[in-house]
Amino acid sequence: MTEADLFAILDSAMPGRVFTPIAPKGTVEPYVIYQDVTVLPTNTMCGYAWLDQCHWQIDSYARTKGEARANMELVKQALHAADPQPTVENEQSLYEVETRLCRRMVQVITWDSTGKVTA
C-alpha cells in the first residue's frame, strides 16, 4: 500500500479533512493527520527485496473526546475494508493542551512493494 493509497482510504472516511504532516493554519476541526513513523526495508540474502514495512501514525482531532473517537471509528472502518488490510494497533486517547483539542491516535502497519515509499 503506497502513501497515495493510504491517503485515498483516509480521505474516503473524512473527505477533505485529511492532512500530512500537520493541518494548515486555521483549519477547523474535526480533521485527520497522518505521517510515516518508520519504514523498514525487507532484506534477503540477495539484498533488498523491494518490500517495505511502513509504520504510520494517524491522529483524529476534534473539540470533544467523543467526536475524535467517532471520527477514528470511521477511519478504522475504511482501513478494515481495504485490500490488503493494514494492521491497526496501539489506539489511545490524548488531549492537546496547546490547541485544546481532543486527539484519538492509532498506529497502522502497511506493506509497500514499490520500493518508493516517501513521506
Description:
By secondary structure, the chain is of the alpha+beta class. The chain has one domain: Phage tail protein-like (STM4215-like, 2-Layer Sandwich), CATH 3.30.2000. It contains two helices and five strands; from the N terminus they run H-E-E-E-H-E-E. The chain has a five-stranded mixed beta sheet. Strand 4 and strand 5 form a beta hairpin. Helix 1 packs across helix 2. The longest helix is centred in the middle third of the chain and has 17 residues. The chain is elongated. The two termini are 13 Å apart.
Topology:
Blueprint: H1 3-13, E1 18-19, E2 31-44, E3 47-62, H2 65-81, E4 87-96, E5 101-112
Parallel strand pairs: 1-2
Antiparallel strand pairs: 2-3, 3-5, 4-5
Helix pairs in contact: 1-2
* CATH superfamily grouping: Phage tail protein-like
User: What would you say the CATH architecture is?
Assistant: 2-Layer Sandwich
Q: What is the CATH class?
A: Alpha Beta
Q: Tell me about the largest β-sheet.
A: 5 strands, mixed
| Annotated CATH topology | STM4215-like
The radius of gyration is: 15 Å
Q: State the total count of DSSP E strands.
A: 5
* Number of individual domains: 1
Q: Spatial order of the strands in the main sheet?
A: 1-2-3-5-4
Kindly report the average pLDDT value: 93
Q: What's the shape?
A: elongated
- Assembly of the depicted chains: single chain
Helix and strand element order: HEEEHEE
Q: Give the N-to-C terminal Cα separation.
A: 13 Å
Protein name: DUF3168 domain-containing protein
Pfam families: Tail_completion_gp17
InterPro entries: Gp17-like (IPR021508), Viral_Tail_Comp_sf (IPR053745)
